[in-house]
Recover the amino acids of this structure.
């Protein structure tokens, strides 16, 4: 495995994709050269920062850059959002995780929920390049949280957009068009769902009666990202796996979703205290 640990990486471009979602293009030539769809990096924003995983949403090996998209959810992602173009991330390591399996399967449904649009984009792009027909469903709670519709459209033969509250495009959740597609088209060979765990769980439950293989990218809490700490432990078909080295992609029909959802909440109180403390010290920017 070629893994690069790099110090003090410059943010070349930073933009807001929505009030709570940031786009960052970062100088990281060694990682850009090795990156494959489905992989991620672990970053540390500053010397007191936690290590957090973020998917390689895009990369350019000639330019030597990688693109990360992060949703502000807790202390580290708020800190990251506070950085500006020209400033530096303390360190990042990657590319981590197993790449997505890219083959010519036929017709594939890609589902992107919330910030899951960022990890779905490189996978859909690689699958389209491999000759697959791509039907993409992207969903968000509301219009303000939608981004990269144009990018996903550019790698899809068909794109369906949903918002939970109906503030844009079709009102409802992504499993509704998914079920309709599975009922109308018996040639769907694979479904790929990336987003909140609860969305991936319900996508997997929707596809199960149709017997369509369903790949999900699990977002367990991580620390080292290299298989040593055990923090990202999940149960797949009753066997223990580590998302950082055995995944992040797994067969959605074999995931113990209740365990994943429970473990994601392990440090909820500490995370809330940490964010409250950080906000109280950075009240102007938070
Ligand atoms: C392989 C992988 C790839 C990821 N890629 C992206 C990405 O491209 N963009 C992005 O915005 N996020 C991504 N995530 C999720 C991201 O790592 C977390 O949002 C981040 O670690 C939160 O850190 P924090 O300190 O800001 O929040 P914390 O204070 O750690 O957490 C705040 C809240 O978020 C919940 N939470 C924490 N970690 C996760 C998680 N991994 N998944 C779901 N909820 C979580 C906590 O339970 C808590 O309620 C990815 C996660 C994994 C495992
Ligand atoms: S993050 Fe430590 S084992 Fe996976």
């Amino acid at each position: 495995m070629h893994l690069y640990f790099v110090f003090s990486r410059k943010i070349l471009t930073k933009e807001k994709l929505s009030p709570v979602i940031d786009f960052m293009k970062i100088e990281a030539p060694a990682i850009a050269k090795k990156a494959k769809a489905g992989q991620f990096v672990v970053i540390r924003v500053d010397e007191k920062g936690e290590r957090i995983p973020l998917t390689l949403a895009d990369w350019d090996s000639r330019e030597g850059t990688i693109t990360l998209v992060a949703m502000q959810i807790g202390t580290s992602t708020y800190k990251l959002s506070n950085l500006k173009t020209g400033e530096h991330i303390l360190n990042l390591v990657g590319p981590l995780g197993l790449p997505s399996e890219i083959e010519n399967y036929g017709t594939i449904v890609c589902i992107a929920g919330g910030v899951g649009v960022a990890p779905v984009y490189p996978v859909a792009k690689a699958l389209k390049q491999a000759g697959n027909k791509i039907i993409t469903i992207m969903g968000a709670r509301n219009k303000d949280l939608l981004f990269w519709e144009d990018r996903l459209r550019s790698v899809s033969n068909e794109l369906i957009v949903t918002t939970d509250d109906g503030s844009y495009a079709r009102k409802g959740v992504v499993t509704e068009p998914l079920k309709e597609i599975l009922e109308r088209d018996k040639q769907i060979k694979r479904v790929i769902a990336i987003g909140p765990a609860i969305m991936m769980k319900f996508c997997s439950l929707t596809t199960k009666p149709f017997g369509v293989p369903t790949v999900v990218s699990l977002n367990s809490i991580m620390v080292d990202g290299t298989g040593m700490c055990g923090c990202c432990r999940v149960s797949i078909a009753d066997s223990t796996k580590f998302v950082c080295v055995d995944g992040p992609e797994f067969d959605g029909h074999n995931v113990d979703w209740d365990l994943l959802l429970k473990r994601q909440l392990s440090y909820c109180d500490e995370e809330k205290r940490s964010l409250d403390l950080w906000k109280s010290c950075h009240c102007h920017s938070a």
About this structure: The two ends are 38 Å apart (CA to CA). The first strand starts at residue 4 and ends at 18. DSSP finds nine helices and 16 strands in the chain.
